[in-house]
Design goal:
The protein is of the alpha/beta class and 309 residues long. It is built from eleven helices and 13 strands.
Length: 309
C-alpha cells in the first residue's frame, strides 16, 4: 500500500510540474558547440549575430553562405570582392586598423572569422570566439565551411556551396587529360627578397590541381630563397601574387627589372600570371583560381589563349 501511495504522489508531482511549465529544459538548440581550429578549441555558446571578418576570403564565405546580414565589419577586405558578393556586403564598414577592429568588438561583435593568428592581433578576449580560416588543403577548407554551417545552423546551405565548388573544379580538372605538368613557381616579391610557396602550402595544392608542378615542392612552406636558386630551377611558368593596391603591371615590371630573375625563360616568353594573393588562399574562389591556373598552364587543352596578367 505504501508503495502504491508513493507512486501516486510522484505521479501527482509530475502532473503539477508539467502544468506549471517546470518539467525541465526545452529542446536542445545545439549550443554550446566546440571545434578544433588550427590547434585550438573554439567554443560557440550561441548563434553569432555580429560578425567581424578578416580578409577577403572570410567576407566572401559569409556572403556565399547567405550570412552577410550578420557581418558588422570587414577588416582588411580591400576592394577585391567578387561582383556577386558586392551587393550583399554593400554598406558594411571596411576596417583598416587594429584600433577600429577593437572598437567594433567593444561595440558588441560576438564572433571573428578570418585568416590571421589570433594571438598576434591583441584583439581577443576569452569570451569571444575567433575562428581562423587558414588551411593546407581543400578537404580542410570544406570542413571549415561545414563548421560554419553548424555554427549558424545552415548545414544545408553549406553543403550547397561546397557542391557548387566541387562542380566548378570538376569542369576544369575534367579537361586536364594527357598533359605534361608545367614546372611552376609561385612567387611573392618583397622588399627584402623573393619568397616562394612550398609543397605543403595551399597555393601549391592549387597548382597541382591545375596541372602544374611546384618547383619548390621540397620546401615545407613559404620560404625566402636566393634569386640564383630560382634561376637554377628554371620554372616554365611564374605565378606572382599581388597585394593590396599594387597593380599587376607593377609586379610585372619589378620582375622584368630584376637583374637575375629577368633571365628566366618564363620571363623571356612572357609566361607570367599575376593574381591577387587572396585568390590563391583557401576560399570560395579556389575553383576560379584553379581554372585560371589551368588555362594559363595548358591553354591548348582549353582551346583558348593564355589568360593575361
Amino acid at each position: 500500500m505504501r508503495t502504491f501511495a508513493l507512486v501516486k504522489i510522484i505521479g501527482l508531482c509530475l502532473i503539477l510540474a508539467l502544468g506549471l511549465g517546470i518539467a525541465g529544459p526545452g529542446p536542445w538548440d545545439g549550443y554550446p558547440m566546440s571545434f578544433e581550429n588550427k590547434g585550438r578549441v573554439v567554443t560557440v555558446n550561441s548563434q553569432p549575430k555580429k560578425v567581424l571578418t578578416y580578409g577577403v576570403p572570410a567576407a566572401e564565405i559569409m556572403a556565399a553562405l547567405g550570412l552577410s546580414q550578420f557581418v558588422v565589419g570587414q577588416a582588411y577586405a580591400g576592394e577585391g570582392l567578387l561582383p556577386e558578393f558586392e551587393e550583399a556586403l554593400k554598406g558594411v564598414p571596411k576596417i583598416y586598423a587594429a584600433s577600429q577592429a577593437r572598437r567594433k568588438i567593444t561595440q558588441g561583435a560576438d564572433f571573428i572569422i578570418g585568416r590571421f593568428k589570433p594571438d598576434a592581433l591583441e584583439l581577443t578576449w576569452d569570451w569571444l570566439p575567433v575562428y581562423v580560416l587558414e588551411t593546407k588543403s581543400l578537404e580542410e577548407f570544406y570542413q571549415q565551411v561545414r563548421d560554419l554551417g553548424r555554427i549558424f545552423r545552415i548545414e544545408t546551405q553549406a553543403e550547397k556551396v561546397l557542391t557548387k565548388l566541387n562542380e566548378s573544379l570538376a569542369r576544369t580538372t575534367g579537361v586536364l587529360k594527357n598533359y605534361e605538368p608545367v614546372k611552376a613557381l609561385v612567387l611573392d616579391q618583397r622588399e627584402d627578397g623573393s619568397y616562394v610557396a612550398g609543397g605543403m602550402d595551399f597555393e601549391s595544392r592549387l597548382v597541382n590541381l591545375a596541372g602544374g608542378n611546384n618547383i619548390f615542392a621540397d620546401q615545407p612552406g613559404w620560404s625566402k630563397v636566393p634569386a640564383e636558386e630560382i634561376l637554377a630551377r628554371q620554372p616554365e611558368a611564374v605565378v606572382i601574387l599581388a597585394y593590396g593596391s599594387v597593380q599587376p603591371e607593377l609586379r610585372l615590371a619589378d620582375l622584368k627589372a630584376d637583374p637575375i630573375l629577368s633571365n628566366l625563360d618564363a620571363v623571356a616568353h612572357d609566361k607570367i600570371l599575376v593574381l591577387p594573393f587572396y585568390t590563391m588562399e583557401s576560399g570560395i574562389r579556389s575553383a576560379l583560381a584553379v581554372d585560371a591556373l589551368a588555362r594559363f598552364f595548358h591553354p591548348s587543352l582549353f582551346n583558348a589563349p593564355d589568360p593575361g596578367p
